[in-house]
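Example 9 (inverse folding). The structure is encoded as follows.
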């Protein structure tokens, strides 16, 4: 998908009409909030397509296409051991000129969400009685059976450090989702293909990419880890503004304060959009920048680390980046701590970053460069398998 979109990206212009088959997935970003605590059936919401839909070597549905929908059903949990249910209907697509086409689609995923999506496309909320906060209360209640004074002290301490979990389904604008067409779509609207130039000279770019170190190393314990998979040609301000416009947040430094906030986010079953990331070294240097995109759980997030490299290319500073998708949390017996598990197919995260930055309109050049020396299989420092085609995406701002 990424490679096809990359080929199409250089063909600036507009197309009209395309048939999009059933089963095609559309990546969306909410443009309005959806909150089970206040929503009612038939309430409307809006979203926008954030990744191009590709058929063959052509973009058949462009980013920026609007999506309109409504709340089909909302069923709040009536007890702490029940789940809130939220059912969304995705009704139509609309282009920038107002051409609208009805769609049949169902939700398949909410990105980085603590909630789950069932086979019918309904969002199932978390169970309040199974949250970290509720389990702490349960433990304190057991202590109270023998030591009521201690339990009262623990309860007071818990309230001062950890808040109660809000088990409602609350998605502000910016939350991302995937829907799947359940019937073929005859799209009669405009398909605007992005105008992005190739990065030249291509031979010089290939030499630059292949001269850069590609394997990062964990600091503690010192082990080979993530593979770099993106390069940015930009000044720092351009890079920071682009990620902020794409909805990414800068990660905070790993210190006592951020560790405490991370603990609270885990216990309260919520997100922490500036959560710290572990330190990885490239050429024995920590990253200069780190960004992440989180929804409502610390367990799952898109995140990346960026290193400034020596020299310029076509007058632009050079940065390299390793991007991975955290998909869950596990306890490491070897490291005696909690660690994130990652999606092994890191090319998907490379495509995610490219699509997000392309959506901002700030990317002016794009390339996908072969790196024959990069192994296509490996493992990161925490033992997750890493699979890649070895190529590096290069974006010029």
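The amino acid assigned to each position is listed next.
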């Amino acid at each position: 998908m990424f490679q096809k979109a990359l080929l199409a990206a250089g063909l600036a212009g507009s197309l009209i009409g395309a048939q999009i088959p059933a089963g095609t997935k559309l990546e969306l970003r909410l443009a309005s909030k959806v909150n089970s605590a206040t929503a009612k059936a038939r309430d409307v919401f809006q979203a926008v397509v954030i990744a191009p839909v590709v058929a063959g070597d052509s973009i058949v549905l462009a980013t920026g296409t609007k999506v309109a929908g409504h709340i089909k059903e909302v069923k709040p949990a009536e007890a702490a051991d029940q789940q809130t249910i939220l059912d969304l209907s995705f009704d139509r697509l609309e282009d920038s000129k107002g051409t609208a086409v009805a769609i049949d689609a169902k939700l398949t995923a909410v990105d980085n969400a603590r909630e789950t999506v069932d086979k019918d496309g309904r969002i199932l909320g978390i169970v309040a009685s199974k949250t970290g906060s509720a389990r702490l209360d349960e433990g304190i209640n057991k202590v109270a059976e023998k030591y009521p004074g201690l339990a009262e002290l623990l309860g007071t301490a818990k309230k001062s450090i950890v808040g109660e979990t809000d088990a409602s389904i609350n998605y502000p604008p910016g939350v991302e989702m995937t829907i799947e067409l359940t019937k073929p779509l005859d799209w009669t609207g405009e398909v605007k293909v992005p105008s992005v130039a190739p990065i030249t000279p291509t031979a010089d770019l290939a030499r630059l990419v292949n001269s850069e170190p590609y394997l990062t190393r964990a600091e503690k314990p010192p082990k080979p880890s993530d593979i770099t998979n993106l390069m940015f040609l930009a000044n720092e301000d351009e890079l920071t503004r682009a990620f902020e416009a794409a909805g990414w947040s800068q990660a905070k430094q790993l210190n006592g304060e951020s560790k405490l906030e991370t603990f609270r986010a885990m216990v309260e079953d919520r997100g922490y959009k500036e959560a710290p990331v572990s330190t990885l070294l490239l050429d024995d240097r920590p990253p200069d920048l780190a960004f992440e995109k989180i929804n409502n759980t610390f367990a799952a997030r898109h995140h990346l680390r960026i290193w400034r490299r020596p020299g310029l290319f076509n007058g632009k500073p050079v940065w390299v980046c390793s991007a991975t998708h955290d998909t869950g949390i596990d306890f490491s017996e070897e490291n005696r701590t909690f660690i994130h598990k990652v999606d092994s197919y890191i090319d998907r995260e490379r495509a995610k970053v490219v699509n997000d930055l392309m959506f901002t309109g700030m990317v002016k050049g794009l390339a996908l460069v072969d790196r024959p020396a990069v192994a296509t299989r490996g493992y990161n420092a925490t033992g997750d398998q890493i699979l890649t085609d070895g190529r590096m995406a290069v974006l010029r701002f």
